[in-house]
Amino acid sequence: MKFLMLASGLVPVLTLALSGCGQPASQQNATAQVPAQAPAKPNVDYLARINALAPKQRDVVFYRALDDSGSDCQAVSSSEPRAPVEGHPAWTAHCEDGRAWVVILQDSGLLQIATPEGLDRATGNKTAP
Predict the structure, then answer these.
(1) φ and ψ of 86, to 5 deg
(2) What is the pTM assigned to this prediction?
(3) CA-only gyration radius of the chain, Å
(4) Fewest CB within 10 angstroms: 31, 70, 93, 95, which?
(5) How far apart are CA 76 and CA 58, in angstroms?
(6) pLDDT (tens digit, 9 = 90+) per residue, 75-105?
(7) What separation in angstroms does the CA of 116 have from each of 17, 49, 82, 90, 127?
C-alpha cells in the first residue's frame, strides 16, 4: 500500500501474549527444539470475526486500534462499513468529539488507521465515508 498520510502504522487486532514474561531468567534462556517444518499458520477469517461483533463491541475494537496507534480519540461513538481501500475491508469510526477515522483490515489481521483526508490525498481519490 502506498498511504502517505496515515495517522499511524499498523495495529494488531488481537493482543498477543508474550511467552517469556514472568519466568525466571534461567527458564527464559532455555533452548527450545525447533521442529523440522514450521507448523502452518491458522487460517483465520478476521473479517468474519469483526462482522460477528455487536456494533458496540466493534466500536471498542476500533477504539483500541485508534488508542494503540496514538490517534486522538477518547471513545468511538459509532462505526459503519465503507468502500474497501485497495481491496481491503474498511470502516469509518466516529469519535465522540466528531472526528472520523478510517480503519482498514489487512490480510494479516492488523488494523491500519488513516484520516479520511489523508487517505484521499494518498490514493488521489475522493472516497465515500
Answers:
(1) 50, 40
(2) 0.65
(3) 18
(4) 31
(5) 9
(6) 999 999 999 999 999 999 999 999 999 999 9
(7) 32, 24, 11, 11, 8
* Cβ atoms of 6 and 70 closer than 8 Å: no
Strand boundaries in 19-126, DSSP class E: 76-85, 88-95, 100-105, 110-114
Helix ranges, 44-85 (H): 46-51, 55-69
Do the strands 76-85 and 6-12 form a parallel or antiparallel pair, or are they unpaired? unpaired
Higher pLDDT, residue 62 or 44? 62
Contact in structure between 5 and 114 (CB atoms under 8 Å): yes
Element at 26 (helix H, strand E): helix 25-28
- All three cell numbers of 54, joined, read 455487536
Q: Retrieve residue 49's grid coordinates.
A: 470475526
Query: CB 65: neighbour CB atoms within 10 A?
Result: 26
Residue type, 104: I
- From the list 62, 64, 107, 106, the residue with the least C-alpha distance to 80 is 62
